[in-house]
Amino acid sequence: MYSPNLEMYASQGFVVIYPFIEGPKQDHNWWVTNTNGDYIVKGVDYIKTANGNLSSPLYQKLDLTNVIIAGHSMGGTCSIMAAKRLPSGAVKAAITQHPGICGPFGPPPSPSTWMETDLREANLKFPMVFMTATNDGAFWPAPQTAEHELGCFKGANVTGPIAFVQYTTDSCKEDHARDPYADEGHTCAFKIAPETPWVTTAIKLYGQQDG
């Protein structure tokens, strides 16, 4: 599902770690979920261990001073929650693409949503990029999802380096380039453009050019 995007990031000189919850096949099941950032935090812990493990293929190949975390949809929520949980300096930046709606009410599992305070606490420690699309109808009928996310973004009173990016309906319309997966609205992140180039710019800025 995310392979073309991950390969794009890897082609720019990044080592990409994709943490599965249960496994490559099991994670396709709708009931396999996580929204508290556990698996991103575990991914950060994993690279530290792998980089120091003589038997690991990643031994001494990772720059642990330039780590970026990112996620889409459920993973977008996890990116916010992981950034809140990780200590200052653990990563250089956090990217959240189309996260679940902010609380207090939202879809399962628990914690079903992120709160404005979560985003604020995360951004106090790390630069962030927050992305959505006008035609994202995953949680509220479009354009209400994007409007809700913007309202939460403003309500968080964030002060650190952070960008809120809302893509137009036209730029995130279905083009069937990623069939059998949809790539419109909420899944605009699957497209090679427009989101992926901006994510690439952000991760290169903070991960390769010292912010």
Descriptors:
34% helix, four-stranded parallel β-sheet, alpha/beta, 211 residues, 6 helices
Describe this structure in words.
With 211 residues, this protein is of the alpha/beta class. 34% of the residues lie in helices and 10% in strands. The model has no long low-confidence stretch (mean pLDDT 94). A four-stranded parallel sheet has the order 1-2-3-4, with helices on both faces. The protein is globular and about 50 Å long. It has helices spanning 3-11, 38-52, 74-85, 116-125, 144-155, 195-207; strands at residues 68-72, 93-97, 128-133, 162-167.
Radius of gyration, CA atoms, in whole angstroms: 16 Å
* Strand runs, count: 4
Distance between the termini: 29 Å
Which band does the percent of strand residues land in?
Answer: 5-15%
In which range does the helix fraction lie? Answer: 25-40%
Distinct helical segment count: 6
Strand arrangement in the largest pleated sheet? 1-2-3-4
Q: Please identify the structural class as seen in this structure.
A: alpha/beta
Whole-number average pLDDT?
94
* H and E order: HHEHEHEHEH
Largest sheet: 4 strands, parallel
Low-confidence stretches: none
Query: What is the approximate shape?
Result: globular
Short description:
Helices cover 34% and strands 10% of the residues. The chain is an alpha/beta fold. Helix 2 crosses helix 3 and helix 3 (74-85) crosses helix 4.
Detail the topology: elements first, then pairings:
Elements: H1 3-11, H2 38-52, E1 68-72, H3 74-85, E2 93-97, H4 116-125, E3 128-133, H5 144-155, E4 162-167, H6 195-207
Parallel strand pairs: 1-2, 2-3, 3-4
